Amino acid sequence: MKDLYLMRHGQTLFNVLKKIQGWCDSPLTEDGKKQALVAKELLKDIPFDHYYCSTAERSCDTLELITDKPYIRVKGLKERYFSVFEGENESLNPSLDQYDQFFPLVGGETNKDVETRMVTTLTNIMNKEDHQCVLAVSHAGACIAFLGAWYDANALMNEYGGFPNCSILHFQYDKNQFIFKDVMIPEI
Fold first, then answer.
1. Does the annotation mark 79 as catalytic?
2. Alpha-carbon distance 105 to 83, whole Å?
């Protein structure tokens, strides 16, 4: 069995300002940096052999606070694309259950699009022979879409009241299957 730790980036300026943040980017806040350092402490005894993150600055900056080891940026780990609503106020969002009907109408992605992209990307990463224990930093929506392919994501969200910044999903991996093991939520 191999291990994958899939982590959400730290809090960003757009999180604080309640802006829709998919493929657009904003910097980590001071709290976001603190969250990453708390996550680093949670992960310190795990023998990672490879590190990955999305191409967003917020993910790279989070990972760089956790390790000084080399890492690979991967487009497949990006957040859901919200098209013309990128950077707009979250008050313009439809209800969560309407995302798949709304955002594709303006060129955005569906949850299934994100799930398929994340499953393909992470399966390709974990199928590499020398990848036994991997940390990948991504985004809330992308992490939850991936989780939903293997586990009841709504149950986890209800149990923890969401998926806070720098939360970490732990999966075991074997023969193209991910098994959800647990979640770690750093508290500052």
1. yes
2. 10
With CA atoms as reference, report the closest residue to 30 among 44, 16, 51.
Answer: 16
DSSP-derived letter for residue 108 is -
Nearest-angstrom CA–CA distance, 171 and 111: 20
Question: Cβ atoms within 10 A of the Cβ of 188, count?
Answer: 16
List b or e across 109-118, with b for residues whose CB sees 16 or more CB atoms inside 10 angstroms.
bbbebbbbbb
Number of residues written out for the chain: 188
List the structure tokens of 89.
């106020």
Catalytic residue among 79, 109, 115, 131: 79
Tens digit of pLDDT for each residue in 153-163? 988 888 888 89
Q: Are 111 and 145 in contact (CB under 8 A)?
A: yes
SS3 call for 63: helix
Res 187: pLDDT: 86
Q: Considering the chain, what percentage of its residues have pLDDT values greater than 70? A: 100
The verdict on whether 88 is a catalytic residue reads no
| Active-site entry in 9, 50, 131, 139 | 9
Q: Is there a contact between 36 and 10 (Cβ–Cβ < 8 Å)?
A: yes
**In a 3-state reduction of DSSP, which class is residue 17?**
helix
Token look-up 């052999």 returns 49
* Residue 39 near residue 183 (C-beta atoms within 8 A): no
